[in-house]
Design a protein that fits this description.
The structure is a single chain. Strands 3-5-4 form a three-stranded antiparallel β-sheet, covered by helices on one side. Helix content is 27%, strand content 8%. It is α+β, with helices and mostly antiparallel strands and 215 residues long. The protein contains five helices and five strands. Strand 4 and strand 5 form a beta hairpin. It is globular, with a radius of gyration of 15 Å. Helix 2 packs across helix 5. The two termini are 22 Å apart.
């Protein structure tokens, strides 16, 4: 086990806290996955929840600063599962953290925690890469990136579900870099059942459950 350091600074965004699900994958230049709708009047209307559809394109963006919330005892956590169990999240997430948590929820809620963290890592890496949009929502809603995003909308989320609560916690862990991911610096991923042509030009970083991650 290894702990990361909580050090991600976003430009222009102050204090907010908050790449296909079982079968999601990214293609070069474009990553497809599902995006979440926000609880604000400015966000697109929610539609009935649907499972993600496979697409073939890649994803990336920069991050904002975390909001002060009760700290999880990451220094004493012996596993990712324990860290998630001890993690606290605010009742209401910022817009950016909603986007990150929503992508985790739609792309990987059926995956083990390590797989969910790897998907989150890809989104965080993209936001920081200067190759993709510079914020989580920009990465998630980038055209033809996430299959769960349709018509610029993210399906409705079952907010009382355990899957959503876990996604919120994984989003914080990834955003604050509280736990190392096997995906490390990955910017792309795809489901193992497919092999997009762009994968031959990327460096494989890890295979976690049903997804393969690349730099």
């Amino acid at each position: 086990m290894k702990f990361g350091t909580a050090a991600i600074i976003a430009t222009g965004v102050v204090g907010f806290f908050g790449a296909e699900a079982t079968g999601a994958f990214a293609q070069e230049g474009v990553l497809q996955t599902e995006t979440l709708s926000l609880d604000t009047a400015q966000e697109p209307a929610l539609v009935d929840e649907t499972m993600p559809v496979m697409v073939s394109e890649p994803v990336v963006q920069p991050l904002p600063e975390p909001v002060a919330t009760p700290e999880a005892d990451e220094d004493s956590a012996s596993s990712l599962r324990e860290l998630v169990s001890d993690m606290d999240t605010p009742k209401r997430l910022s817009r950016e953290m909603e986007c990150l948590a929503g992508a985790i929820y739609f792309e990987s809620r059926g995956e083990p925690l390590e797989g969910q963290l790897a998907v989150a890592r890809v989104i965080v890496n993209r936001a920081e890469s200067r190759v993709f949009p510079s914020d989580y929502c920009g990465v998630v809603y980038q055209r033809s990136q996430f299959s769960f995003v349709r018509g610029g909308r993210m399906p409705s989320i079952r907010r009382a579900s355990g899957a959503w609560q876990r996604a919120r916690k994984i989003a914080r862990i990834a955003h604050e870099d509280l736990w190392d991911s096997k995906a490390r610096d990955s910017l792309y991923f795809h489901a193992k059942r497919v092999r997009p042509s762009w994968s031959n030009r990327k460096i494989a970083r890890a295979t976690i459950s049903s997804h393969v991650f690349y730099r």
